[in-house]
Amino acid sequence: MCRWLAYTGEPLQPSTLILDAQQSLVKQSLNSQLGAETVNGDGFGLGWYPANEAAGGIPALFHSTEPAWNDENLRELAHAIESPLFFSHVRAAAGPPIQQTNCHPFRYQNWMFMHNGFLGDFLTMKRDLVLAVDPSLYPDIKGTTDSEVVFHLALTYGLMDDPIEAMRQAVRKVESVGHGLGVRFPMQGTIAISDGATIWTFRYSSQGRSRSLFHSVEIDTLREMYPEVERLNLFGRRARVVVSEPLNDLPGAFLEVPESTVAILHESGYQYEPFLEAA
């Protein structure tokens, strides 16, 4: 459906990953090796927390309906910005129209959210799911995607206090509504959420066959494995990235996130937690 990446660590130009990597996100938008679609050209988004603000500040967003490979503004911004935490997403639309309000990542206060996947038979479930969103949050739904509804369900269930439990409740709601309406596999996807300090990434589907998701190994380990690769010197010791598919072909550089798992990125490294059993 889409491809995305999330980075945290020392301030870094997004271009290092989304433009310049061997299998960069922009290259994946043209030729995805592991995605459900080879081409992801229905718009893109970049969201970043400014390097000169304290962790947890308000992220900035740039969205475009242009294909990522064809947008000069993306290249200008990606080289001009330095950020300690950023999201980027390239979209393959699965029904909702190609418009800026449907481009990821989405934002609420200091939180960002992006999704690769879909809600099965979303139009059948949409009314019930939207009505489950807290009325105070409803005006903030700007687009027409299933992803933005999931984000606002998670906010409704307490995302800002407990992201993992809020996502569990949001997914349970999707599955409950879907199964009640005869949708066999309501939830599919990988999700990234951040408050500006920590990144939570989720891999889950009702069918138990989720979209691909990987994270990089620790940079010190990578340098020991590949001392001759000078490009690794671009990254600080806290640099970590979660991606829909690996950004290079170095064996062992990226590890697959297990099915039905939350991978958490923070100052001390990676942490896994179980998420949900497939319904």
TrEMBL record:
SUPFAM superfamilies, per the entry: N-terminal nucleophile aminohydrolases (Ntn hydrolases)
Residues annotated as transmembrane: none
Domain Glutamine amidotransferase type-2: residue ranges: 2-279
Domain of life (superkingdom): Bacteria
Assigned keywords, A-Z: Glutamine amidotransferase, Transferase
One GO MF term: transferase activity
One family name in Pfam for this protein: GATase_4
PROSITE patterns referenced in this protein's UniProt entry, alphabetically: GATASE_TYPE_2
Protein name per the record: Class II glutamine amidotransferase
Classification lineage: Bacteria, Bacillati, Actinomycetota, Actinomycetes, Micrococcales
